[in-house]
Amino acid sequence: MTVVRHHALTAYAALALAYLMLPIAVVVLFSFNDPAGRFNYTWQGFTLDSWKNPFGVPGLEEAMWTSLEIAALAALAATALGTLIALALVRYRFRGRGSTNLLIFLPMSTPEVVMGASLLALFLNLGVARGFWTIFIAHVMFDISFVVVTVKARLVGFDRSLEEAAMDLGATPLVTFLRVTLPLIAPAILAGALIAFALSIDDFVITNFNAGQTVTFPIYVWGAARVGVPPQVNVIGTLIFVIALGVMLVNVLLQTRRQKGVA
Amino acid sequence: MGALLRRRGGIPYLLLGPGLGWLAVFFVVPMYYLAYTSLQTGDLFAGFRFAWEWTNYGDAIATYHEQFIRSLEYAGLATAIAFAVSYPLAYWIAFRGGRWKNVLLLLVIAPFFVTYLIRTLAWQTILSDSGPVVGILRDLGVVGADGRLLATSTAVVAGITYNFLPFMALPLYVSLEQIDKRLVEAAQDLYASKFQAFLRVTLPLSAPGIFAGTLLTFIPAAGDFINARLLGTPEQFMIGNVIQSKFLVVLDYPGAAALSFVLMASILVLVAAYARALGTERLTG
Q1: Where residue B74 sits, what CATH number does that domain have?
Q2: Mean pLDDT (whole number) for B184-213
Q3: What is the DSSP string of B40-77?
Q4: Which residue does chain A place closest to B49, by CA atoms?
């Protein structure tokens, strides 16, 4: 009986994982499809055409570059702003800590549609034209909280005695920060930046409200969904998936190795 | 020395300033403008002006209560299904994952690496009339010969469940992973059956994860409009669809802003009620 129950749980977990993987498999599979008409719904036959020519549909390449540019800029800005907040929260006692935490938490627990709508209300009332920079502003806004949470989690276990040692050896606070603190917290900052980049490149809802005529990759896909999504979109989707998975795998492996080194 | 201390006291505010400033200007201030817009009157051609137009709220609720209730229903249903799928999975990874834990966790969040819209479009393919799922269900007689999944509420709820499931699974895993396994063993030593030990020890200890996971799934689900748009028809449209179309297509800004506020208020009320229910339960239990 226990044996059955033991395996029942494993089987259930395996099924749940299979369910999570199924749409990913479909995305990858249909990047090799050779659709008969405009709609890439049913399997017609294997072809490498879309892979040989991933930007073979008008507008896709431009949208992808816009997305990458916004994601890079937004990640850079949000990582700088978020890391400073995380440093303040982990290392200093100050009045207003509660309200700071609340302000960090609120954007993560507000529906995206409300954030998108409220930013649009701001831009409309102030007469700001929507485009590249309003998307950038919006992305930095929702990225900050995730950077703070990510960097903070990794800063908590930081060994302060290394900094004290540097100071004892005559390093000024600035030199200590640049030569000791920064290299040690670099992995935390990088993790925050990667999350910000990923969130930015994936965002549709808030971007949809504040994009004006600017087309990012998700906006392109949304537009294409009405008239038939070309298999090239699946190619780009697969590429993004593989790159993100690769980065995460390296991260996990490094972590595992570090844990082994400690033990 | 005194000057130095005072300067040190200012450092945290210097660090916080830029980031919190950004959030203040582009998160808090916009909420004010959303409220301001929701009380405006007029139309696109004559222009909108502020007029304490409270009727926008009454009209919004009167006209769109159906989409409101549907949003809360779909979000609640999707949250419940996500919980049912995630809890055993998270439990299995936390207690049986061994050295594969990190890799298994990576598989759980893998859907996030596929662009939101693209993974939702994949469900369009899977659930389509000529797709494998409908075929099997027709053969089994679960749906009629012309039965379909795409463009039904089942498809929309399935899409929402899938898209936000990692938000449920991750906090559940974190709270289950932190449980001291010796507590479960102690319960069994004291003659609790495996099931009793789970019910009286493991489940209550994972309550923080259940709380966080439920909120992280329910809140974005209630505001979603992508799944209803791509997997449903206007019959399945949620309040997010109405807000989106009013802001970007119909250009009825005051109505859209009022709807956004009602959505946020109803979510806040539900979350507060939920926090209270779970809190008192833990106090008495």
Answers
A1: 1.10.3720.10
A2: 86
A3: EEEETTTEEEE---THHHHHHHHHHHHHHHHHHHHHHH
A4: A125
